[in-house]
TrEMBL record:
<comment type="similarity">
    <text>Belongs to the phytoene/squalene synthase family.</text>
</comment>
<keyword id="KW-1207">Sterol metabolism</keyword>
<keyword id="KW-0479">Metal-binding</keyword>
<comment type="function">
    <text>Catalyzes the condensation of 2 farnesyl pyrophosphate (FPP) moieties to form squalene. Proceeds in two distinct steps. In the first half-reaction, two molecules of FPP react to form the stable presqualene diphosphate intermediate (PSQPP), with concomitant release of a proton and a molecule of inorganic diphosphate. In the second half-reaction, PSQPP undergoes heterolysis, isomerization, and reduction with NADPH or NADH to form squalene. It is the first committed enzyme of the sterol biosynthesis pathway.</text>
</comment>
<keyword id="KW-0460">Magnesium</keyword>
<keyword id="KW-0153">Cholesterol metabolism</keyword>
<dbReference type="GO" id="GO:0046872">
    <property type="term" value="F:metal ion binding"/>
</dbReference>
<keyword id="KW-0808">Transferase</keyword>
<keyword id="KW-0753">Steroid metabolism</keyword>
<dbReference type="GO" id="GO:0055056">
    <property type="term" value="F:D-glucose transmembrane transporter activity"/>
</dbReference>
<dbReference type="GO" id="GO:0045338">
    <property type="term" value="P:farnesyl diphosphate metabolic process"/>
</dbReference>
<keyword id="KW-0472">Membrane</keyword>
<dbReference type="InterPro" id="IPR033904">
    <property type="entry name" value="Trans_IPPS_HH"/>
</dbReference>
<dbReference type="GO" id="GO:0006695">
    <property type="term" value="P:cholesterol biosynthetic process"/>
</dbReference>
<keyword id="KW-0521">NADP</keyword>
<dbReference type="InterPro" id="IPR006449">
    <property type="entry name" value="Squal_synth-like"/>
</dbReference>
<dbReference type="InterPro" id="IPR019845">
    <property type="entry name" value="Squalene/phytoene_synthase_CS"/>
</dbReference>
């Protein structure tokens, strides 16, 4: 029950309640489906099937960017499905990956044709500059993914390369779409280093969080150069007797991922369009919250560590301006700092990158904003009210039409 998990966090209960009854203004989609073509409506239906919360953020994008990012997101999900589908034997998958890429170039591959004809129709309805970005990025990703189908992630450098192919290129593609739409400066599309870091921070956080799930599905994305310092085989970390070496490796990888935060701050501080800022900032603040939850946490090796729904909704509502994002980053780097143990092998590196991040994120403006202190009496009153109304909301939700609604009519 999401609300129970947030009982210790009154702010989250209020935001869960707000989100439940009306969503949050900043990500309210500006879409009227009626004026849409059948194929476009289907594309947005696909999008909403993939991830409700993030789909809303995409649908809130301004102008031509909305359709371009929607199609880009769906194409990437399709590529992802092919790459993930372990059932396709290797000798068939490599040419398949190439053909998926060629499909958009050649428009003749049955897989897409049958599965997602609507996506290819709407892909061709996009402006040429958007089509060129998407097919160029898909081509580079297809080639990169094929390269890693035949090999494991060995060095830390290879880890960066793998994450570049599956997420860095997404950041580079999105940044070029932002500039092509002229909603953002051309510099955003040109600075591929920063755009790449945006993707690497998200992908490394996902790989760290999903250790056990990937292990259980026979996938291994933790770099050998990291885990071989602490054990013989990566799968050892799933066994409690290897917990201390597992935590040492986990903390090393979190420390590595934190090195992308300064670039993420520079990238976000360059954005000028509110809808683009929200679209880019929300996944980043979710990632640093997830990384803090994973740091030195044995739970990573026993299940999947997830941030609370209330926490996610609160972050989504707050990540709408740079000073709020800076203080969120400062708050979670502080949270990690408090968990750095004196015996952790990466201690010095972790303390160093955390002090760099604090320096960069504690701009004067941020100091004042984030933590507004609420009196405890007020807190429990609101909690009680929210809990009651939550119960009432759930109780009445089942009412057939015509029964008494929230306003007692
Ligand atoms: C994304 C990214 C994303 C958004 C904005 C800017 C980005 C810049 C660089 C790289 C990626 C960027 O965001 C999504 C967020 C998402 O899908 N979150 C899921 C939860 C989850 O954990 O999957 C949700 O349901 O909210 C993201 O994770 N990826 C993604 C894919 C396509 C696009 Cl167009 C944008 C996936 C990945 C692998 C990180 C690139």
């Amino acid at each position: 029950m999401d609300i129970l998990k947030s009982l210790g966090h009154p702010e989250e209960i209020i935001n869960l309640f707000k989100y439940k009854i009306g969503g949050c203004r900043s990500v309210m989609p500006k879409l009227d489906y009626d004026s849409m073509s059948e194929t476009l409506r289907t594309c947005y239906a696909y999008l909403n099937q993939t991830s409700r919360s993030f789909a809303a953020v995409i649908q809130a994008l301004d102008g031509e960017l909305r359709h371009a990012v929607c199609i880009f997101y769906l194409v990437l999900r399709a590529l992802d499905t092919v790459e993930d589908d372990m059932s396709i034997p290797l000798e068939k998958k490599v040419p398949l990956l190439f053909s998926v890429v060629h499909y958009f170039m050649l428009f003749c591959f049955y897989f897409m044709l049958f599965c997602f004809p609507q996506i290819s129709v709407e892909f061709r309805n996009l402006g040429q500059e958007y089509q060129d970005v998407i097919s160029d990025i898909c081509h580079q990703m297809g080639v990169g993914m094929a390269e890693f189908l035949e090999k494991k992630v060995s060095s830390m450098e290879e880890w960066d390369k793998y994450c570049h192919y599956v997420a860095g290129l997404v950041g580079i593609g999105l940044s070029r779409l932002f500039s092509a739409s002229q909603l953002e400066d051309t510099e955003v599309g040109r600075d591929t280093e920063l755009a790449n870091s945006m993707g690497l921070f998200l992908q490394k956080t996902n790989i760290i969080r999903d250790y056990l799930e990937d292990q259980q599905e026979g996938r291994a994305f933790w770099p050998q150069e990291a885990w071989s310092q602490f054990t013989e085989r990566l799968e050892d970390f799933a066994h409690p007797q290897h917990l201390s070496s597992a935590l040492s490796c986990l903390n090393l990888l979190v420390t590595d991922a934190l090195h992308h935060v300064p670039d993420v701050i520079t990238y976000l501080s360059r954005l000028r369009n509110q809808s683009v800022f929200n679209f880019c900032a929300i996944p980043q603040v979710m990632a640093i919250a997830t990384l803090s939850a994973c740091y030195n946490n044995p739970q990573v090796f026993q299940g999947v560590v997830k941030i609370r729904k209330g926490q996610a909704v609160t972050l989504m509502m707050q990540a709408t301006n740079m000073s709020a994002v800076l203080s969120i980053i400062a708050q979670y780097s502080q949270e990690i700092l408090q968990k750095v143990s004196v015996t952790d092998p990466s201690r010095e590196k972790t303390l160093h990158i955390l002090s760099l991040i604090r320096e960069k994120s504690l701009s004067p403006a941020a100091l004042s904003s984030r933590a507004h202190h609420i009196s405890p009496v007020y807190v429990s009153a609101v909690m009680l009210l929210a809990a009651l109304s939550w119960q009432y909301l759930n109780a009445t939700a089942g009412q057939p039409p015509g029964g008494a609604d929230m306003h007692g009519h």
